[in-house]
Amino acid sequence: MSSKRIFLSLSQQSGFEHEYVHKALDTNWITSGGPNVDEFESSLQNYFDDESFVTALNSGTSAIHLALILLGVNKNDEVICQSMTFSASANPILYQGATPVFVDSEEDTWNICPEFLEIAIQDRIKKGKKPKAIITVHLYGNPYKVDEIHAIADRYGIPIIEDSAEALGSSYKGKKCGTFGTFGVLSFNGNKIITTSSGGALLTNSKKVKEKAIFYATQSKDNAIHYQHSEIGYNYRMSNVCAGVGLGQIKILDKNVKSRRENHKFYKEIFRNIDGVEIFEVVNKDYFSNYWLNTILIETKNQKNKDDLILALEKANIESRPLWKPMHLQPVFEQYPYYGNKVAEKLFEKGLCLPSGSNITQEDKNRIKEVIINFFK
Ligand SMILES: *Cc1c(COP(=O)(O)O)cnc(C)c1O
Fold it and tell me: Could you list the residue ranges forming a coiled coil in this record (predicted)?
C-alpha cells in the first residue's frame, strides 16, 4: 500500500509548541506543575471567559476520578452514567468502589435520555439509594439536552459531572460546553480537539475546590515541613513539558474547530445523494457542535453495512470505526443496572465514525470521497 494512512482523528501543530517545550527544558522545569502549567490554566480560563477555575491534569480520566472524589463518592454509592460513551467516563466510578447505573441515549443528540434519566433516579431512590452524581457526555462533540437534563438533576439535588472530553469548542445556547456541570471535564489526549500528548482538565466555579483538586492531584500533602498525609493522594498533575505543547495548541483551538466543522460540510455533501445513509447533525441552532468526529448511520434495509464500509476504507488505508459500544453491553459493566430502550444498541449496530482530524487535507478528502462513492454505487 503506497498511499499514506488517513487516521480517524489527529490534531495539527501551530508551530509554537517547540518554543514552550524548549522553555521548560532550558529552565529545567521538567516537573509536574510549573510555569507552563500555570499559563496553560490561565489561557483556558480566558477561553471559557466566565467563572470557571481550571485545574490541568495528566488525563481526562484523572479529572473524572477527582470530580468523584471531590463529590465524596465512595463504596456503597451509586453514580448514574450515560451508557453510550468511551469507557473512561465510567471506569473512575469503579476506582472509587461505587456502582455505575447506566442510562440509554435519545435519538436527537445520541446523548443521555431525559425520560430514562428520571426513571432511573426515581427507581434508585425507591430501591433505597439516591444517586450521588450523574456523569453526562457531549458525545462526538454534540451537546446533550442541557436544559432538560440539568432541570432533572436540580429537581433531585444531584450534581452533574459534565464529560466534555470530546466537546472543547462546542456550545449550547451560546454557552460553552464544560461550564454547565458542578464539574466539567476536558481531555487533551492525542485524538482530541487540542492535545498535550496526554492530558486533561477539571473545571469548577470555585477557587477553593480548584485548590482541593490540586491537593489531591499532588499526593495530598498536608501543611507540614515533613511529608504528612491525612488523606489518600494521587499523582494526577499535568507535566510542565506537556503544558508547553498545550500552550502551542491552544493558539489554534478555534482553527481546529473550524477545520472539523468543514469536514462535516464535506461529508454532508457526499451523503446528501446517498440513500439509506444518515449523517449525524445537531437538531437545531441551540446546539453548536465542534463535530469532533463525523458519524453516519447506515439503515439496515440498505444492502451495504457498516462493517463492509470499514473494510473498503481500510483497503484504501483509511481508518474508520464503529460508534462507541454502549457500556451496559461491555463485559466489565454488564452486571450493573441499566435503564433504557435500546436506542444506544441500535446506534451502535448501524453507526460509523469517519476520519475527522483537523489535519485532513483536500487530497485526503478526495481519497475518502472516492471510496465512499464507489462503495454505495
Ligand atoms: C477521551 C475521553 C475521555 C478520557 O480522556 P483521557 O484524557 O484519554 O483520559 C473521557 N471521556 C470521553 C467521552 C472521552 O472521549
Answer: none
